[in-house]
Specification:
This protein has 236 residues and is an alpha/beta fold. The chain contains nine helices and eleven strands.
Length: 236
């Protein structure tokens, strides 16, 4: 049986991992897919990426790494994504995975010129582009999602369908063809995980002139964003 391949691209902070588990656990919980259907591949630590014909789909997790570091495993994963795109395998790239997918398809990722985006943010869907999209068509035109990132997709891949934006980030979601999506936001984050990330970054945020207290007050559940994961599983 083909597997839904979850590509682990990093790990969270040690204290958060002990409390909540790691990126792959949060994502698998959100996917709501049978464990026997999901194969976890630790790309960051050199685990071999599966052949496209063995993948029912691929989900790429977030990471604390930066795409512009061009680590060997990052380049290897980008090249593998090119194979999946050519084979028509469904792909969902989340945050760091969103950056790698964009680069694999000819786009550009790098540091956001206005700095980081963090907290629960409003994401706006472009109705004309998303009206028939398999993942976004059922979402409201405006919904809340959790975000924490310093890098972003600076330039969409050629031919990509632009699906969503926030006040801070114009490229919160895109689709390539009919089966590959990148989302900047974190559909796998719970409100508790989002709060923990804000608290972990509190001193840096204060240094940047941001208010961690206000960001914490604005954290709210994000069921519409989370629905992206289950929609992707149904597509696979």
């Amino acid at each position: 049986m083909k597997k839904l391949c979850m590509i682990k691209l990093g790990t969270t902070y040690a204290d958060m991992k002990s409390r909540f588990g790691d990126f792959e656990h949060w994502t698998q919980n959100g996917l709501d897919a049978p464990g026997a259907f999901v194969r976890i591949v630790d790309a960051e630590n050199g685990q071999r990426l599966p052949a496209p014909e063995k993948c029912a789909g691929a989900v790429l997790t977030g990471s604390h790494a930066m795409a512009t570091d061009n680590a060997e495993w990052t380049v290897r994963t980008e090249n593998w994504l090119k194979e999946l795109l050519h084979a028509g395998v469904p792909i969902l790239g989340i945050c760091y995975g969103h950056h790698l997918l964009a680069r694999a398809a000819g786009g550009k990722a790098g540091y956001h010129p206005q700095g980081r985006e963090v907290g629960t943010v409003e994401v706006r869907v472009f109705p004309g582009a998303a009206g028939s999209d398999p993942l976004f068509a059922a979402l409201p035109q405006r919904f809340f999602a959790h975000a924490t990132h310093s890098q972003t997709v600076l330039k969409l891949p050629p031919g990509a369908v632009h699906l969503a934006e926030s006040d801070h980030d114009p490229n919160h979601a895109f689709r390539i063809g009919g089966r590959a999506w990148g989302v900047q936001f974190h559909p796998e984050f719970s409100a508790e995980i989002m709060r923990a990330y804000i608290q972990k970054q509190a001193q840096e945020l204060i240094h940047e002139g941001r208010s961690p207290e206000r960001l914490l007050q604005n954290v709210t559940p994000t069921p519409e964003a989370a629905a992206i994961l289950s929609a992707f599983v149904r597509l696979c």
